[in-house]
Design a protein that fits this description.
Chain B: GO terms for molecular function: 4 iron, 4 sulfur cluster binding; metal ion binding. Chain B: This is Iron-sulfur cluster-binding protein. The complex is a heterodimer of chains A (223) and B (484). Chain A is an alpha/beta fold and 223 residues long. Chain A has 7 helices and 12 strands. Chain A is globular. Chain B has 2 domains: 302 residues, 3-Layer(aba) Sandwich (Rossmann fold), CATH 3.40.50; 68 residues, no CATH class. In chain B, helix 2 crosses helix 12 and helix 16 runs parallel beside helix 18. Chain B is elongated. Chain B has 484 residues and is an alpha/beta fold. The chains are: A alpha/beta (223), B alpha/beta (484). At the A-B interface, helix 1, helix 6, helix 7, strand 9 and strand 10 of A face helix 2, helix 3, helix 4, helix 8 and helix 10 of B. The structure holds iron/sulfur cluster.
């Protein structure tokens, strides 16, 4: 018999004569304590995300590229990785072309194998969109796509993320239900709740463990 | 950095009692644990400031885990079907040797030489680093805490905070000695050193290994939580990802992870959520630009089905590995994680290890507890740990000819003498005549009690019966009353 058959046979034998327990999931327990009035959601998200060193800026659908350019200048970032096929990637590219004298944009438009060394060693910052956020835990929802791959939100030391204010949801349960996650998950789905951190040495919190050292969230208030 | 020399870990010496004695005398170690556990307890308390909310959520957590276990074989099959549909290859292993064999064959098929590992306690069960090193394959830990203990040839002393037994000064000396960097006690700088070394390794690795926090049967999703990003690196950068997990980690529905996640991160670290919640449902698709080309899941039994067979002991498998029981354990806090000598220390270690290695190998585990009850009180999935410890104590002294075989190594503390004494004691206490006779002689001959009665008199004065038993006094009293 295979290991699988052995294991399943043992488990089944142990359950002989029993019936599976009923599903009495009480959704109120994971929703009611975590509800916010619409006008509180930004504040709630902000409180939690800033508590773990996330930088948050309020801006608009028209102005954000300019804000990104300004933040890049302040940090003296020499380049920015973008997803060129996304709507926000295109908006940013258009703005960059219009301005002319900004640090170069890099496009994630080929398999990682073709430029892994550059991604790891020479890509100081990236910009991605999000699917929204969760106020209860202060988390961004990120579903990487072929246009905007997973490593964009992980390898570059600075990660800029765009968030539409209207897409801040109350809690994780609501997000799963509203968007029918159970009906089909992508290859990789992420909740990101701050820059990477660790408290593995003496419980002292240090940021920039293996992922981004800085997470900068631009909230588009009018979207 | 010489990588081969990283691998062997220090073997544990002596027996539990000797190790505990030594640990108790190590003031540095005790300080390190005391301050860490105090801070973790405070953080948890703050994160669960609403006791009402907490208790309801714990009840829900318990119900979800109990429901999953009540249909475990079906859920495992559903998980396999859905993962397979998503393109993940599922493997089953009854023993750690089988699991290592599977991992090794995947690594060999890719002619891989370098493996980078995210935190995984199951891989510790397998001693994967060691097994791979013997085959000339480097397997490097990437969680900062794990990296530190691996560098010092140690094993984790805590399931969430592997290097909690060390302070910054000790890490500073370690990095200075082993990595050749300048000595610094600055935690930020130490972490940046770790980041530099490990980034290179993520870049080079041929295979990434990780654990799993929850495996969702409904969608075929592996959910991993972490703060550092090393888990995401290990599961995203190398071309092959191998996840290893115990067969009990499956939950039925995606929504089930919502309360479990909240219970896990709040109980473990007092955080509302970890920095990353990484949900993996398949390998890279043709049109995707990154992610592993292959994803494997190894489902390991290693004694879990033995715990599963007994409806009381089955509750051990509710565990979501939050570590809260050890943070709140007065014994763990004083003797530290290494004293237990096994992969899982503290209260959870005491109830799960006997199933993995046999009770005979860890005979002192069930009794290394004051049964104060703190572990059971904080456990987010309501495992009655003290009751399970008492049960294991019973199994530990079961007669060898007992027809009821519950677990490997049961009866390892059985002693005929002790059993006889208890039998006599039972007789004395169940027969009124004998009891009265015993009471009579015990009080009349009370001067004969020796002043040294074994371990009892190490910390207490010898018990001395009273001049007259309560029974006798009561009888005399009643007799007097009757006269009046
Ligand atoms: S037994 Fe309970 S408290 Fe201990 S690690 Fe497991 S879930 Fe956490």
């Amino acid at each position: 018999m295979s290991a699988k058959q052995n294991i399943l046979a043992k488990l089944r034998k142990s359950l002989t004569g029993t019936t599976p327990l009923a599903d009495n999931f009480d959704e109120a327990l994971v929703t009611e304590p975590w509800r916010y009035a619409p006008e509180q959601r930004i504040a709630q998200l902000r409180k939690l995300m800033e508590a773990v060193h996330t930088e948050i800026h309020l801006t608009t659908a028209a102005d954000w590229p300019q804000r990104v350019a300004q933040l890049m200048r302040e940090r003296q970032l020499p380049s920015l990785l973008i997803a060129p096929a996304t709507a926000h990637g295109q908006q940013l590219t258009a703005y960059w072309q219009q301005c002319g004298d900004l640090p170069p944009l890099k496009a994630y438009d080929r398999p990682v194998e073709d430029w892994k060394a550059e991604l790891f060693n020479d890509t100081p910052a990236s910009l991605t969109g999000t699917l929204g956020a969760i106020a209860a835990t202060g988390s961004l929802i990120v579903w990487p796509t072929p246009q905007e791959p997973r490593l964009m939100s992980l390898v570059p030391p600075v990660h800029f993320a765009l968030l539409n204010a209207s897409e801040i949801h109350d809690n994780f349960y609501e997000v799963q239900q509203k968007f029918s996650w159970a009906a089909g998950m992508p290859t990789n789905a992420l909740l990101i709740s701050g820059p990477s951190k660790t408290a593995d040495i003496e419980q002292v919190l240090a940021y920039g463990a293996h992922g981004p050292k800085d997470l900068v969230v631009l909230i588009l208030e009018d979207r | 950095m010489s990588t081969q020399s990283l691998i062997p870990t220090v073997e544990v010496q002596d027996d539990f009692r000797a190790r505990a004695h030594k640990a108790l005398g190590d003031q540095q170690l005790r300080n390190n644990f005391r301050s860490a556990m105090d801070s973790l307890m405070t953080k948890r308390a703050v994160a669960f400031s609403d006791a009402h909310e907490r208790e309801h959520l714990r009840a829900l957590g318990n119900a979800i885990r109990a429901r999953a276990l009540s249909k475990l074989p079906d859920l495992l099959e559903q998980l396999e079907q859905n993962l397979t549909r998503n393109g993940v290859k599922v493997h089953w292993a009854e023993t750690v040797d089988e699991a290592n064999g599977i991992v090794l064959s995947i690594i060999r098929a890719h002619e891989a030489r370098q493996v980078i590992k995210g935190k995984s306690m199951v891989s510790e069960e397998m001693e994967m680093n060691h097994v791979l090193a013997e085959q000339g394959i480097e397997c490097l830990e990437s969680d900062m805490g794990e990296f530190i203990v691996q560098l010092d040839h140690e094993k984790p002393s805590h399931i969430i905070m592997p290097a909690i037994h060390k302070n910054a000064g000790q890490v500073a000396s370690l990095f200075h000695d082993k990595l050749g960097v300048e000595y610094t006690k600055d935690v930020d700088q130490l972490i940046q050193i770790g980041r530099r070394v490990l980034r290179e390794k993520f870049f080079e690795a041929d295979v990434g290994v990780s654990g799993v926090n929850f495996a969702v049967a409904e969608t075929g999703t592996l959910l991993l939580v972490e703060n550092e990003g090393n888990g995401r690196m290990s599961t995203t950068v190398p071309p092959v990802h191998i996840a290893v997990t115990g067969i009990e980690k499956v939950v039925e529905n995606l929504r089930d992870v919502v309360p479990l996640l909240s219970l896990l991160t709040r109980s473990a670290l007092g955080q509302p959520i970890t920095t990353y919640v990484n949900m993996i449902s398949g390998p890279r698709k043709a049109e995707e630009l990154d992610g592993p080309q292959e994803v494997h899941l190894v489902l390991l039994d290693n004694g879990r089905s033995q715990a599963f067979a007994d409806s009381e002991l089955r509750q051990t498998l509710n565990c979501i590995r939050c570590g809260a029981c050890m943070n709140h354990c007065p014994v763990y806090t004083r003797i530290g994680g290494h004293t237990y000598g096994e992969v899982y220390p503290g209260p959870i270690g005491k109830i799960i290890t006997p199933h993995m290695v046999g009770l005979a190998k860890v005979p002192d585990h069930p009794s290394a507890s004051s049964l104060c009850g703190a572990c059971g009180e904080v456990c987010p999935v309501k495992i009655p740990i003290p009751a399970l410890l008492r049960r294991l104590r019973e199994e530990n002294v079961k007669a060898p000819d007992s027809p009821h075989q519950v677990m490997r190594g049961q009866g390892s503390k059985y002693s005929r003498k002790e059993r006889m004494i208890w039998n006599v004691w039972t007789r004395l206490n169940t027969s009124p005549r004998l009891y009265r006779l015993f009471g009579f002689f015990a009080t009349r001959l009370r001067q004969l009690v020796p002043s040294n009665v074994g371990p009892w008199t190490q910390n207490h004065s010898a018990p001395k019966p009273a001049a007259r038993s309560l029974h006798e006094l009561a009888r005399e009293h009643l007799a007097k009353q009757d006269k009046h």
